[in-house]
Every structure is written in C-alpha cells, then in structure tokens.
Amino acid sequence: MKHFYTENLLLTSNSAKKLYFEYASEMPIYDYHNHLNPADVAANKQFRNLTELWLDGDHYKWRAMRWLGIDESLITGKAGDREKFLAWARAVPRLVGNPLYHWSHLELARYFGIEERLSEENAEEIWERCNEQLKDKSLHAAGILQQFDVRVACTTDDPADDLAAHGQIKSSADIKAQVLPTFRPDRALNAAAPEFMEYVLKLGRAADCTITSYTELLAALKKRVEYFHESGCRLSDHGFGAFPFERATEREVAVVFAKAVQGERLTELEESRYRTYTLLRLAEMYYDRGWAMQLHIGAIRNNNARMMDTIGKDSGYDSILDFHMAASLNAFLNELELANKLPKTIVYSLYPYHYEMLATTIGNFQSGESVGKLQLGSAWWFHDQKEGMMQQLKALSSIGVISTFVGMLTDSRSFMSFPRHEYFRRVLCRLFGEWIEEGELPADYDYIGGIVQDICYRNAVRYFGISVIEQ
What we know:
This protein has helices at residues 14-24, 38-42, 50-54, 59-67, 81-91, 99-112, 123-133, 141-147, 164-171, 186-189, 196-206, 214-230, 250-261, 268-289, 305-311, 326-338, 355-363, 386-399, 419-437, 445-464, and strands at residues 29-31, 150-154, 178-180, 235-240, 292-297, 299-300, 319-320, 344-349, 374-376. The chain is of the alpha/beta class.
C-alpha cells in the first residue's frame, strides 16, 4: 500500500526539524477563532460517519470537487454519505499542490492513525476503519478537543444567541477546554439587508427590550455585550467586504436607521455612515471591557446567484475582493485613538497585497497598554497555506515585530481542522529554520524555540486574558 509519511512535512532543514519537534509540536492549542457549533461540544456529539465529520460544511473541499467536475449531488446534494466520501477519495489524488492534499493526509494520520494515501483503491477500507474508530469517545466532539490539547476554543456567535450551549459546556466537568463565545454583530451592522428589521426585532427580544430608535439599538447591543462578557466572551469579530469609513453624527445615523427599519432602500453613503458610526460605538464598548476586536476584511460573498438560490450561503462561492483601504482603516483606528478607546485589534485581509500596508498601519497605533496591541492577523481563508502563511509572516517580521504574534486559528466549522495548527507550526519552524541555516539568526535553539512557543501559544494566552486551565 502506498503511504504519505508526514513526519517531516514542510521541515526543509535540520534547524526547522529541531524547532518543530523540540519546541513547537507539544504546545497546547489556543484556537481563538473558529465556527464550531457549541451545541455539538455541549452534547459531546458522536458523528454518524466520516462524511459528517470530514466533509459536511467544508467549503474548501466542496470547491475542489466542483473544480474536478464532480456532480453537486455528491457534494452538497442528496447522494448518500458513503457515495460522497467515495467521490472525495477519487478527488484527493488529483489535488497535488493544493493545501487540501496536505491537510487531508495530516487529518487521516492524526485522527485515525492512517498514513496510507487516500485514493479510490483504498477508499472503502478507510471508510470502514474510520467509521469504526468514530465510536470511541476520543473522536466525539468534546473528546477531539481533549485529544488535541485544545485549551481555548472561541466560537462565533450572533448577539441574539442565547449562549445556552456555552452554559452547558461551562457546567460540564467532562469538558476540559475553555469553549467561549465571540461577539459577531454583522447582522446588526448590515442595515441594507432585506431582513434587517426582522433581525432588529430578534435582537430586541434577546435584550429584553423594544427597539424603535437607533439609541435603543445601541442600548440593546450594549446589553448583549454585557451578557456575552458575563458568559466569558473576550473577543468580537466582524466581517467586511471593503472597509469604508464615513464620518457621521448620531442624528444622521438615526435617520438612516429609521429608513432601514421601514424597508427603504439606502444609498451607499448612508450604508457607510451607519456602519462606521455603529462600529465605532461597538469598539468603545469592547475597549471598556478589555476585549480584542477582530476585523476580517476583503471577502466578496455569494457570487454564484444560481447556486445561492439552490443551496444557500456559505457553500463555497466566495472569493477575494481587490480594493484599497489604507486611508479608511487609518481613519477608523485614529478616531478611536483620539477618544482613547482603541481596543486590542486584529486585522485580517483576504487580499494578500494588503499585508505590508496593514503592518505599517497597525504600527501607527501600538502603545504601552499591551504588547502587540494591534495585530496583523494570520493568513486567512484562501491563504492559510504554505505560501500565504510565508507571505504574512515575512511581512510581519520585516515591518513589525513577529515575536509578538498571537499565531494561528482554524476559522473552521469542522472538528477535523485542528491539524491546521500543526501545519502552521511546521511553516513557522521552516521559516525560522531557514533564517538559522542562512546565518540570519543565531543557532541558539532555546532562544529561538522560546519565540516559536510564544507564537504557537503563549502570546495568545497573554493577549486575550482568558484564564487557561492547565491539563
């Protein structure tokens, strides 16, 4: 049987191997941004088979299968789970050069101890072997967190969510990881959405208030921030396409809000004013509570209208938006700085040509309040692979201070994504190993290895201020 041994994957020098195996590999995981379902953790969900665990909801794999001409019925359609897995097994050998090839074999090796190369020839056998192993509690949802030494996992939650699952997790003696909510108010910021009024009503119910004005909207959001804080939340997250900045008064924004809840069409200027003013007010709330604010910028979403109508959003039809944002981002951060209300902030861009610009921008607003108060976010989405990670790490190190970096995250709905931390650590050690081999860094492995360990885990512990339970 043909194998793909991953022991030295991406480790191209002896220094890289030493840094990875002696320093990086045993560090716990601090997954401060993911899209896991907290209800699955609370219930310690047992997955019915490998397709549910590995393929359901994974738009990375879906996009690759479509590229290979696989029928949608075998991706998100009505085909059976076994047939969907067999289709994926046929696809994997053709993914050479794509990070999915590495990820898939890392996942098979780390979850199931399988180092055989997945293909059509061994798919049936691997299907049976993995499904048998899924009966073991170590591969149930909470068991996976334990197995991969995940100390903190921050999910992504709407302000109107009741966080009941998080309460169940907190009260469970069997779940060792800190699984905490993240405040994601995108729907409250999108006043131009057709369902905006429906969402405002939902938010009001969650905050136990009636929202009939913009002032009442801000009050409801503040109540939900307080509720999330009491539930252990210490991060917010925001998703944008472009990042416009338009100054406005509260009176002007109140007029826009009134139009939006009446279902009237907003101009682009009105949308920008509403979003800018509301985000500024939210950022001030985050600062007051010591939260970190995440800004995910640069996705253009749901581009295939026919498939959006057929299978809905978040199904693999998003891509990279190209645009300029240096002036708007600097203006936004400066507005908060002037008010002395700039929270710890992580800025991610899906457009990789922003990395150097972002590194210089966040350098404008660092302060003595926190080490690396502003962060250049990890290579995101289409870039969380070798080349994208290298590009982000090199921009951060050459323009900023890489030793303060808070490291990797999964940004995934899948419980099989934790080896992405391993993948990142291998890339990180490869880069530092190259610098050692080329004489750009001293071959002092305790010194360099300590920085690697900081980036892998310890910086995040210090930055986010979430109490970590030692295991």
